[in-house]
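From the methods appendix. Each design record in this collection lists the tokenized structure first, followed by the designed amino acid sequence. Records were kept in a plain field format so they could be parsed without special tools. The example shown here is representative of the layout used throughout.

RECORD:
FOLD TOKENS (631 positions):
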């Protein structure tokens, strides 16, 4: 049987009809990328680029535009003064003294124009930085608000990367193209004004010479855009592989297993594939550019031939012909600059459209879902089903349960049974695909999400280790109270973290982790105690603990579970664990299997029923030689 070919980034095309397998190409990644994003959208995209630039730095934009206008006026003035100088030299007998004032004026205008160009470059650099920061901040704002389930989708990360690229490198290209176009337009306006005065016939001829460049620009920009969009999955794969060599956590295992050579080879193959595709695009662009340049050069030669004909036939005198030739040369240079600027602007604007579409995703998100509720008395899930984005199989199916205030409820089950997914739904981090979650009889879909989350504390098994101070690591539980050091210390004492934090070089102000100068690392168990302290500091009425003791030793784990009711007195606790022996004291235990609730009850009731809980509890107890296994 034929096997599909696998490319360096894992893309395949299955063989069919006995033919040789084909590799995925850019066209397979992006269908019709240049269809709806055609040249007719350029004015709208330029408008979007201008609005983004205005929001980022209106003062710098106005100054830069003023300098561009000055450069255009200066070009016009220089050409007119140059005509007067030529006429004086060719037709005057008064000597050089008569042209000295004009020459001085020409020098002064030239000096001012050069200074204006230098000032404009400085403003342009500053504005590019402002645009980059503004655009990147907008992307982060949306990423911070988008539904958490989106982070389970590769398509979302592709959109996020393109939006981030648009907010960075592409936004700078957009500003540069916008200013280049403004500079070229201002210069062209001066030259066109001179030609209109001297011989209007030359203006439409020059306009025709720009046509091939505009056609080439459109095609080349679309090719570039399609290339980068098509390469997004491959680029993300390369960035991931590079992080395995540069991030502190994975690099240990890469070294321990001797994976450096293999991963580096895979990284190089991805790079080689990207270069192959880029070479193909570059060859196509160069062929097109050569044809466009030859066509434009031919039309420019025709324009100069017409100018010569006008002079020979007495339609222009020598001085006017010389100034017209200078204006034509100026226009030829300006048209080349215009072509490059329009290409850069159009190409960047296509990415700005990705940026705008990503921001629109955030605009569609409700900022206030409505009802604000007090701390609950009962939280109830009703026939809840959840399917992760991009998946066809449900992670949870028709799950119903009730959690009452002040009780300890446990979710147990084997790995992959859906425990953490259900916890995220109850903590208002995910939204059900179907079914409802009720908060004291109110559908949480109609509630203000931020207000609900204010009542909830979640500590995940893969909790974040913030490479910031110990005070901040705990204080992030309620960041509004970061300066309440006594409350932070009290929370650390409850989690048994105060002793080792107090011994650090700068106590609670010591930076945790080795990423930054002066940082001190902690053991995994100590990090977990800091995470627990963060949960205590949040002081929320509903606490979700997802495998909270995974990094603690057996004695510390036993002590913590024995103290849960004392530590969280008066609060509601949802405890997730795959260790059945740790949840015996819970008021209610739900056993999940295959995304469904298979059993529910107290420890004694579940043991008496002889079902899955009893079987797995007995197996685990035997494995760990639990002396209480027979209870």
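DESIGN:
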């Amino acid at each position: 049987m034929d096997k599909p070919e696998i490319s360096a980034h894992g893309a395949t095309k299955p063989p069919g009809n006995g033919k040789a397998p084909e590799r995925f190409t850019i066209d397979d990644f992006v269908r019709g990328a240049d269809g709806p994003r055609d040249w007719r959208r350029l004015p709208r995209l330029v408008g979007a680029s201008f609005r983004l630039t205005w929001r980022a730095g209106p003062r710098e934009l106005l100054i830069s535009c003023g300098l561009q206008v000055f450069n255009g006026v200066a070009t016009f003035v220089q050409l007119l003064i140059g005509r007067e100088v030529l006429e004086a030299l060719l037709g005057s007998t008064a000597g050089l003294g008569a042209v000295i004032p004009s020459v001085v004026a020409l020098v002064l205008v030239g000096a001012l124009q050069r200074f204006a160009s230098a000032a404009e470059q400085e403003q342009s650099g500053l504005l590019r930085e402002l645009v980059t920061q503004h655009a990147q901040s907008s992307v982060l704002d949306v990423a911070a608000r988008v539904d958490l389930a989106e982070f389970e989708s590769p398509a979302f990360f592709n959109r996020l990367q393109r939006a981030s690229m648009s907010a960075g490198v592409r936004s700078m290209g957009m500003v540069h193209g916008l200013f280049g176009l403004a500079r070229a337009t201002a210069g062209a306006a001066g030259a066109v004004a001179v030609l209109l005065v001297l011989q209007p016939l030359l203006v439409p001829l020059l306009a025709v010479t720009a046509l091939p460049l505009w056609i080439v620009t459109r095609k080349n920009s679309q090719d570039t855009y399609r290339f980068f969009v098509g390469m997004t999955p491959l680029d993300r794969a390369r960035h991931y592989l590079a992080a395995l060599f540069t991030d502190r956590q994975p690099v240990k295992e890469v070294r321990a297993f001797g994976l450096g050579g293999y991963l580096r080879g895979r990284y190089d193959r991805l790079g080689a594939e990207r270069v192959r595709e880029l070479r193909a695009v570059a060859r196509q662009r160069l062929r097109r550019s050569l044809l466009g340049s030859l066509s434009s050069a031919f039309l420019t030669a025709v324009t100069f031939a017409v100018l010569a004909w006008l002079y020979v036939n007495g339609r222009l005198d020598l001085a006017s012909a010389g100034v017209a030739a200078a204006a034509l040369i100026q226009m030829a240079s300006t048209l080349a600059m215009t072509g490059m600027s329009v290409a850069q602007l159009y190409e960047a604007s296509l990415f700005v459209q990705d940026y705008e579409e990503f921001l629109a995703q955030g605009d569609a998100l409700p900022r206030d879902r409505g009802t604000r509720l007090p701390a609950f008395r009962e939280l109830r899930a009703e026939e809840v089903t959840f399917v992760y984005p991009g998946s066809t199989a449900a992670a949870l199916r028709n799950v119903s349960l009730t959690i009452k205030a002040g009780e300890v409820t446990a979710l147990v089950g084997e790995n992959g049974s859906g425990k953490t997914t259900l916890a995220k739904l109850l903590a208002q981090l995910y939204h059900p695909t179907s079914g409802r979650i009720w908060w004291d009889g109110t559908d949480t879909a109609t509630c203000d999400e931020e207000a609900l989350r204010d009542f909830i504390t979640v500590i995940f098994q893969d909790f974040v280790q913030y490479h910031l101070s110990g005070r901040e690591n705990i204080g992030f539980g309620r960041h509004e109270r970061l300066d309440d050091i006594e409350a932070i210390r009290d929370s650390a004492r409850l989690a048994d973290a105060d002793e080792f934090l107090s011994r650090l070089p700068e106590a609670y102000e010591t930076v945790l982790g080795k990423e930054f100068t002066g940082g001190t690392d902690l053991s995994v168990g100590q990090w977990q105690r800091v995470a627990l302290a963060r949960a205590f500091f949040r002081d929320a009425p509903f606490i979700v603990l997802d495998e909270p003791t995974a990094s603690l030793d057996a004695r510390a784990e036993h002590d913590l579970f024995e103290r849960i009711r004392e530590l969280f007195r008066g609060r509601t606790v949802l405890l997730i664990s795959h260790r059945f022996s740790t949840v015996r004291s819970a008021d209610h235990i739900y056993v999940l299997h295959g995304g469904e609730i298979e059993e529910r009850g107290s420890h004694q009731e579940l043991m008496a029923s002889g079902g899955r809980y009893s079987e797995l509890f007995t197996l685990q107890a035997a494995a760990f030689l639990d002396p209480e296994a027979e209870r």
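APPENDIX NOTE: Residues 426 and 437 are 7 Å apart (CA to CA).
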